[in-house]
Amino acid sequence: MTKSLHKALDILEYVVLQCGRHVTPSEVAEYANLNAATCTRIMGELVERGYLDKISRKSGYAPGPMVVSLATRDNCYRRLAAAANEPVRALAERLRMAVNLAVMNRDRRIMLCFHSARRNWKVWNSFTFGQDHAATATGWLLLSAMEEEAAMRIIREKQLPITRRDLARVSERGFVDFVSPGDFIRVMGHLIRLDGYPPAAIGFGILPEEDPAEALKLSEETARRIIRNLTPETRAY
Known about the structure:
Blueprint: H1 2-17, H2 25-32, H3 36-48, E1 52-56, E2 60-63, H4 65-69, H5 76-95, E3 98-105, E4 108-116, E5 128-129, H6 137-144, H7 148-158, H8 164-173, E6 175-179, E7 186-192, E8 200-206, H9 212-229
Antiparallel strand pairs: 1-2, 3-4, 3-8, 4-5, 6-7, 7-8
Helix pairs in contact: 1-2, 1-3, 2-3, 5-9, 6-8
């Protein structure tokens, strides 16, 4: 039962990640490591529940209305995404780079919203990220916001080059600014902490020609705008 549930979720996530492109059961079966008959059966069940639409036998499947409907109900993650949408877009346009807002779920980062001003940029091909925490702003920031032992357990399991002292320093500062190893991109971001909400973080990279001091200032202002958008006086709910 658990395996079937995991496969159904893998299939649903894969179809949604295609951004509207129709996919066939044979394509999805290869991705999910399933035989075609099992994959077709699972996709048929997802169609019955409204999570997928069957376009035609030849064209395949696309996301169904339930994919959108799930996001219409109020919860803290939806409010975080709504509060961050415009500030994240504005920061991405100003820096001409991709910016995202993420939260930590167990040992994985989950993106709640993102925007890119780079027209040739390819959207991330996953909803969750669990192996590159040490190379990203959101990874460092969200680990620093966790209970220390839980964070260190993840660091040990994934063999990340992060120490307790590193986490304490990032937690105290509330931001990160470092050059990604083996890359020319400077990685930055700020932590967002507010009572009643899970810790969240914005993260991005800047090109060498950008002013890092200005970018860090813009990042801080973006985090403050998101927090302001989450206060009762400005919340549109």
